[in-house]
Amino acid sequence: MFSERFRSHHDAEAGLEAMLGKPKGHLGRLLKMKSWADVEKKLRDGPGAQERSLPRGIYIHVPYCDKICSFCNLNRKERGRADLDAYAAYIAGELKAFGEYPYVREQPFNSVYFGGGTPTVLSVDGFALILRALGDHIPLAAGCEISVETTQHNLGVQKALALSELGVNRFSVGIQTFSDRGRNVLGRTFNGEKSLEALRELRAAFTGVLGIDIIYSYPDQSIEEITRDAEICIESEIDSVSFYSLMIHKGSALAQSIENKETEFTRNIEWDRERHHLFYQKLTKAGFSLLELSKLARPGRDAYRYIHVQYENGDLIPIGSGAGGRLAGFRIFSMAPGHRFVSPINKQYERYYRMLGELQFGLYDPKKMAEGLPPGTEKAILEKIKELEGRGFLIPAAQGSARTLTPDGIFWGNNIAVEVLGAAINPAKKEKTVYV
Ligand code: SF4
Prior knowledge:
3-stranded antiparallel sheet, 9-stranded mixed sheet, pyruvate-formate lyase- activating enzyme, Arc Repressor Mutant, subunit A, 436 residues, binds iron/sulfur cluster
């Protein structure tokens, strides 16, 4: 195994950036800032042939929550007295403004994703305003996925049905665990029973795609607790589940509590792995399959187009305060009305970011990975793949020369992706990975 587990795609991205010798994250992007006028010029020119082939989506960020969870470090704040109707009007105005550019108008979008924060802090009227603006100003493909992240306490059945009437066809519900003790540690509202009851009601009423989030490996999580969470996912007829190992983010209330010794939290890789495998194996036995490293879905029940736009480096228009995206060859971070950070996408590095994204789906095809890269790259990737196969992380796929991930491979999926990227970036490097 590896000495440290990359628990998320962001960890792997940091690993990739280190290999490419880039300054990390926002700093790296800020160093190469461009002005909005550069983006506007491209948006007025319209998409080129290559850009027309990209998947397209819109990301709408709502940075407010009713209550802040103990583990969370996302871009959000407590809603307090925020004027949410004014925020919905701002989003609608942004959609109208983007819809005026030929680059946006000339190609349909097949995914709209409301993330946060908790988008469902907005009222039904707020959603109606935004979704009307979408319909009026943005070309949406037939059957466009319109997905909304939510918590349970501000999405009752009535509101869910009202949003469904307005066009929302996918909900992603942050539940995290059905254990009362776990919910308390994670700072969630509702107890486990109420959470389960709310999920059952929503499933019975809402016919669209229903996914939930589950966190495993929280402090003192017992085998019984993770087993029960898995069993509820199976019984409750949800379409998909994202399952994450708890990350302790610096500055979060939970990190603080651990530091102050109010919460005891020691875990090792074996403990984490046991919970991961138990959850994964129970769900796959019940018919779920891997959609991406941290997501399982019932076959054909969740296309999750948004993640394809993200991982396949598609055009993703960022709307709202704190939204990040990429459009017309630029990375864009939207700060507040009228304020955006913009940096050009580095074409040389783009290939590797895309590879990292594609590897999130768990298929390792050396031929495809080496396309467009210098001679010798395919051989280096293949050697690395064989090494990982020997370690029990990969097995041959049903067809061709590709490999798929074993349960251990999924657990270590982001580490493995970085290993293979290392071989692709530096095919002449002979140094072997040190496993512990
Ligand atoms: S986990 Fe979700 S609901 Fe909780 S504070 Fe973070 S964004 Fe808000």
